[in-house]
Amino acid sequence: MGNSINRRILQLALPALGSLIAEPLLTMADSILIGHLGTFELAGLAIGSTVLNLIVGMSVFLAYTTTAVTGHAIGAGKSQEGLRKGIQGIWLGAALGTILALILIVFASPIVSVFKGQEEVLGFARTYLLVSAPGLVAMLSVLAANGVFRALLDTRTPLVVTTTGALINVPISTILIFPCGLGIAGAGAGTAISQFIMTGWLGMVIVKKLHLEGVSARPSFKLILHSGLHGMPLVFRSLFLQAAIVVTTWQAAAFGAVTLAGYQILKTIWTLGAFGLDALAIAAQSLLARALGEGDQRQIRTLIKKLNGWALGLGGVIGGLFILTSPLLPQLFTSDSRVLAITTAGLVTVGLFQPLAALTYIYDGYLIGADDSKYLALSMGVVFILYLPSILLVRLLPAGVISLVGIWAIYGLVFIGGRALSLWLRIRTDAWM
User: Fold this and answer.
1) Residue 261: which of 271, 272, 249 has the closest Cα?
2) 92-109 pLDDT, tens per residue?
3) Interacting residues of 39 by C-beta distance below 8 A, sequence separation 6+
């Protein structure tokens, strides 16, 4: 029984790991390429990518809700109903992406000015946002499509598609940034192009699946509206999550371009680790959604025990790698000696919090798979309220390595630790089932 569960976890988590890592690799590639243009450009990317990630992060409910509702229906033997609901999530993603892209284009200047950075830095951030905005249509569609594949317990197809997209992004962005001379605009355009390629590919695979099952791919306003309303608690949950990142970036920006550039490097590495750890959360979402549809509570508790062990182990490995490579890894992003001087200690701090982060993400996966979205929203709101005064205290620290370490220590201890505690308090009961 135990070995069978381990195999199922690995069969879902390993492809999901590759798929999830491919996404932050798009941002990581931009950071590496832009970092060699200059410190101001890298600092601008920190602000621009934070805003873009805020929008995408708030829309992650598209993947979570689609996984839950489609997985529950399939687990209950209603596969056609599940697929019909899944395709409406993709339509919703495309519609939201279009609206949000237009808003971002119109309001790019006032949005970046909120960060109070140096004018040259804000100019690069504005350029990156304007060029990247159209890619939101593809990004949000991909989120919903991934939810459908997770509900089908198919993490291999997203792996192939997103990995290919990440690989294509590197030469496209490199050509646009350097030979074409577009600079930071080339990075935004390259990422958007790669996202549209992924969207088209995933869409063709899903349409083929719908055809085989005899399910219409036509949009249904009623189902799209229901999908949007059903996901509203997760929108608020994601809003609080992304707001914490925005506030943290805002605090880093107050210390100047060097500290902000160092923060961007560490944020990129943290995100890479987070997406790697989230592979187990994807397995948890998919397996628990099916088990809940089947009504098997014993299987759920067995899965939780196994997944907790996997999370702690993987978190320890990733954290250890970050610590061991802390003197070398930042050199991939910049040659600025001032930035390099403050990032090693910051990366050690990031590494120390990876096991705790792994538990947080896996706990999230349990409740997302159970569609316990109201508790997720409420608990995230409480944690954010507690985190806000804590991260504001970082202004009392001197600029440089102390402020950078302080930012990540407070983020890990208060925000990640608070999330872990609040989620554990729910999971130890049976109410969420």
Assistant:
1) 249
2) 999 999 999 999 999 999
3) 257, 258, 261, 334, 336, 338, 339
